[in-house]
Structures are given as structure tokens and as C-alpha cells.
Amino acid sequence: MTTVAPHDGEQDGTSPQPERGSADPQKLLTPVLSAHWDEPDSYTLAGYRRHGGYRALPKALAMDPDDLIAYVKDAGLRGRGGAGFPTGMKWQFIPQGDGKPHYLVVNADESEPGTCKDIPLLFANPHSLIEGIVIACHAIRSNHAFIYLRGEVVPVLRRLHEAVREAYEAGYLGPDALGPGKGLELTVHAGAGAYICGEETALLDSLEGRRGQPRLRPPFPAVAGLYACPTVVNNVESIASVPALVDRGKDWFRSLALGSEKSPGFTLYSLSGHVARPGQYEAPLGITLRQLLDMSGGMRPGHRLKFWTPGGSSTPLLTDEHLDVPLDYEGVGNAGSMLGTKALQCFDETTCVVRAVTRWTEFYAHESCGKCTPCREGTYWLVQLMRDIEAGKASSADLDKIADIADNINGKSFCALGDGAASPIFSSLKYFRDEYEAHLAGRGCPFDPEKSTAWADGPSSAHLEVNA
Amino acid sequence: MTSVEMGIPEMPAPDYPAEVRERLEAEARAIIARYPDSRSALLPMLHLVQSEEGHVTRTGQRFCAEMLELTTAEVNAVATFYTMYRRKPSGDYQVGVCTNTLCAVMGGDAIYASLREHLGVGDGETTEDGKITLEHVECNAACDFAPVVMVNWEFFDNQTPESARALVDELRAGREVTPTRGAPLCTFKETARVLAGFPDERPGAVEASGSAGPASLAGLRLAKGESTPGVVAPRDAASDEEGK
């Protein structure tokens, strides 16, 4: 067992910030899902079983489905796709004895800018998801599950095809998978390029062979989801976390918390951008960005953190003031943002925040599904104004105008895509209004984009030791 | 596809040749069988017709409509919503440079500009030899490998303008190209077949490029004490360590 021992969360949760540079990764990190990714066959059934894979399954199948749901609820597992809704509660909403088929749909449409956890997870460890699917289907009494994978990741699709084939062959899927006479089918479905399909009701429409546009709620998917039947839609990481939770127990799971008790468990943090060592860091919820940067070598040599996203571009930007915010649902919420997908995109002082926000805004305009007016029209006009501001062709009244348009999108759109589009506008104006004004005063962008590139400091600079 | 037809409606699209139709029908039925409701087969079937002709033609849309008992208008509404369905003939290799914020800042914009100049094509355009279609793409969930270039939806991580130019030169010269993460490249049509849900049967395709890329292992290596905290490994050397 190479996994790091469960961390004593209580001790660290109450202790003051660790001294700079003293973070001990062997104590702070808790690789569970990622524990064996360094083995050459981690993605195969044999590789997964070698380390206890499919050991939780018989334990879960022996439990009464309602008890299993209560167990996952008690463990405190919350959705890892962004919203943080308690997974057990989502399962509990499925009506029982209604005579309709129930469906589990796994949201593997990972497309939120900055988010890059589910794709490496599925590439290196697809069986953790499949075992979790079988357990979840037992809990919600489903006989057909779907994995909706974004289409643009063919290497992952290959491995999912193969992992599902292996699981059928081994009898984890197929007839009698959930007990004598209780079969389970699992269908891998590749999307076709649309960010909006990460929104759960748009995903369901897409899976039904339609344009991926969100549905009005209620009815919620738990009542009328796929084919108007009760449906649970869960993120990849949420479901993949279930086997370890069942195997090692809810007390162990609850003990993994560096911040709020309401946010327990291990999770994947994705460091990217101008950091010395980008990558996946699996840790208990509530670790801070300072701790992650300290252990991983900090920002790239000679640069400092300017702004970052806690969970993708739809979560309001934070700055170096927020390095010690516990990265859990409560901690980041209290700091005025959202934990989201734990996609920690870190930008240093060479980065123009107006350029960054303009590009994100172009993304939201491109991906707006067109169903509702505030988002469709608002994102279009935001792009026009942001381009003018970035080019120094706007007036200071335009800064108020983008805030006003963002306000007319935020909370007034059909789904959360609109809120996401407003977040970078609001938060960048809050922390960097002077930088917007500098574009207007200087009639252009004061930054040199070449300085922000990965190769700006020369290929050899990364050899240096860093005092994080 | 952007031309607007006024007046006389377009004639129905021609059907596939009989032997093509027969083969595609069998495959379409296999796709339909995966779902409780046949309409769910539409997205994979659009990938399937794309694997036949390299883009979604009117013939392909008519085929989908007939198989699923939909109108061609319903099929067209879906086909035009999703960015992965091409609406015009394109190259064997779709080279997509991520220019969403993080990759753009890390050098994606420079890579994209460099490729445009090097290939002499604009966004969505194809080189004269029919080999390469250049596009900018949105975030492809590989930010810890930025800047990223996708070719036929396989990962080329940690790119530079030089590496990207060398990549397209190799593709145009017809040499076998292996992605950082993914299997040796096949053509766009062959890729579309995998997207339709037919597993890649090439030996070694599933195993290719190992379990995980170097960045995916950054935290694990720290947790196992295999790399020293606070000391930064050179990026390119890191990939050598993994035996890539």
C-alpha cells in the first residue's frame, strides 16, 4: 500500500498556517483515486484489482439500497462537479416503487475552462468510475447507466470502451451484475462538442439526441430526467469516490477534512498556469492554495501570483489575498467565490487580466446555447465591449456598462452558464478596476503577451531551486 | 453551407451507394441497440456518417433521418448545434490549438499565429494538399499540460511554436506521429468511427502512451517522497523520467 495514511485532519484544521516552505506533502496529500497512476497498467482491470479494486462492490451489494444511500449521505460526500450538492441526498430523491426505469447518468463532459481532473482520472483509472457506477445503480435501483463523455478526448474514450468491455467480461456488468436476475447495462456515449452539455438538463437533452439546451426545472431530473424517468446525474469524480468511501468506511472519509466539517473527503486539485509544477494534487478538502504551492515549488521562478480561479473560469477570480482560504465549499464561498471544480488556474504578474477576461467572455458567447435572451445577447455585447476595452478604444462609461450587462445576465438566465459568464467580469472589476482604466488611459494593453508564455524565461530557468 | 437558397427548395439529398448503405445500416442498428430510445443514437450516428465522408453531408443527414424516423430538419438542427460535426470537406488531420484563456496566455495564441503563417491558412481552413485543417479549440481539459494542441482529438502537450510547426510538417510528410497522450494518429475519418462507439481495434492503441502523463503524477510523486518539495524539475526532463 503506497497510499499515504489518512491525515489527522483535526490537528491541522485547527493549527495556524504552516510556516512558509515547511509544508510536508507526505502528510498533506492523500492520493486515493490517483494512488496508482504511476503503475504501467493502472487503467486495466488487473491493475485496479491488484490494489483492492472491486472490493467495495460485494460489500455495497450486500447492503439494503436505502442503507447504502444513508451511508453515503452520512459520509458527507458532496458533488465534485462544481455545485457541491450532497451525493447521497441526490440519490435519495429518486422515487421508489414508481414502476418506471431509473437511470444513472455520469457527467464526463468536463469542459469548464481550467478543469482537468476527470480526464486524467478516466485515462488512468476508469475502473474506479465503473465500480462506483455499479454501487450507485444498486442504491438507486437502476438497471441502465450512461457515461456521457465529451467527444474531444479520444484517448479517454478508447480506455473507457476497453474498461467497460473488461467489466462485462468479468461479470461486474451485464446480466446478474446487481444480483440474481438483476442486470446492469452501461453505455458509453461520446458527445460532439458543446460546453453547455455539462449542464445536467442540457446533457440529458443531448443524450436523447437533441440540441443540448437546458430544461426548465421543476421537474428535476430525479423525477423526470432521461426519457422523463427518474434520473441521477453525477460528476465522474463523485461516483469514482464511492468505492473507496465504502471500502474504507465513512469514518475514515469524514476524517479527511482540513477545513469545514461539512466538506469532508479526498479530492483532486488541479494546479495549472504559471506555477512551477502544474498537475493533479489529491488532498483532503480544505487544503489552501498556499499549502499546495509551498509543497509543489510555488510560482515559476522570479514571478508572483496575481490572480487565480478556485474552480474554473465560472468561479469568481481570487488574488494573492486569498492564499490561505481553505479550499472547500464553505471556505471559498465565504471568500466570495465558489469551490467549483477545484481547477486552480494561477496567473502571474505578467498576465493581463483584461485579456484573460476577454477570452473567457468570448468562450461564454461561443458556448451560449441561444435558448434565453439575457445570456445569448448579453454575452455577445460583453465580447464587443471587452474587445474594445482591451484595445483601449473604450471609455470609462463602458466599464459601468459591462458591469450592468453582467448584472442583467447574472441570476436572470435560464441556467448557470450565464452566471458563469458574469463571474469573471464582476470579480475582475472588483480587484483590478485600475488595470481596466490603464487600458483606457494608455489607449491599449500595457502588457507584453510574450512574457506570459511558458517559454518566456528560457527553457533552462526551470532548473533553478525555488524558495516557495 | 453559408449560402442562402431562395426560391425553389433544394432537391432531396442523394442516397448512399447500395453497398455503403447496407454496411452503414448494420452499424446504425448496432448503435441504436445501445439505447432504450432510438433517437439517442443520433449523436453517435452523426459521428458514424462523418467517418464515412469526412464531414456531415446532406446524404448523411438523410440517412440518419431515415434510420431514426426523424425529419432531415430535425437532424440538421442537431448536426449544426455541435462543433465536432464538420459541415464541409476538410483535411485528414484536424489540428486544434487551444486558445482558451489559460493555454492562450501560456503560449497558445503564439502557437496558433505561428501555424496560421506556416500553413498559410485561416481558421477552419484546409491546406491545399488536403492534409491539415487548422482550428482554434476551446479548453480541452488538459490545463496542467498547457499549451495544448489537439490533433484528431489526441493530446499534444506542452507545445511551443517550434514543436507545433514540426508536428504539422511531419503530418504533411506522411510520417507516423505519436501524441503525448493517446494512440498513434489515424485519420479524421477513423477517429470519427471510434467516436461513434466502435472500439479502436489497432493493436496497442489502448495501451499507447502509458497510464498517465507527467503532470498527472505531480502530486502522487510528492506524496510518495519521490520528488523533493520546493525543487522544480525541468519540464522536458520530467517527461523523460516517466519513460515516455
UniProtKB/TrEMBL annotation, chain A:
Database matches in InterPro entries: ComplexI_51kDa_subunit, NADH-UbQ_OxRdtase_51kDa_CS, NADH-UbQ_OxRdtase_suF, Nuo51_FMN-bd, Nuo51_FMN-bd_sf, Nuop51_4Fe4S-bd, Nuop51_4Fe4S-bd_sf, Soluble_ligand-bd
Gene3D superfamilies: 3.10.20.600, 6.10.250.1450, NADH-ubiquinone oxidoreductase 51kDa subunit, NADH-ubiquinone oxidoreductase 51kDa subunit, iron-sulphur binding domain
Cofactors: [4Fe-4S] cluster; FMN
Keywords from the UniProt entry: 4Fe-4S, Flavoprotein, FMN, Iron, Iron-sulfur, Metal-binding, NAD, Oxidoreductase, Quinone, Translocase
One GO MF term attached to the UniProt entry: oxidoreductase activity
Reactions performed catalytically: a quinone + NADH + 5 H(+)(in) = a quinol + NAD(+) + 4 H(+)(out)
Family: Belongs to the complex I 51 kDa subunit family.
Protein name (record): NADH-quinone oxidoreductase subunit F
Organism expressing this protein natively: Streptomyces oryzae
Lineage: Bacteria, Bacillati, Actinomycetota, Actinomycetes, Kitasatosporales
Automatic annotation (TrEMBL), chain B:
Gene name of the record: nuoE
Family the UniProt entry places it in: Belongs to the complex I 24 kDa subunit family.
CDD domains linked to this entry: TRX_Fd_NuoE
Enzyme kind, highest EC tier: oxidoreductase
Species for this entry: Streptomyces oryzae
Region (Disordered): 201-244
Record field: compositional bias (Low complexity): 208-222
Protein name: NADH-quinone oxidoreductase subunit NuoE
EC number(s) reported in the record: 1.6.5.11
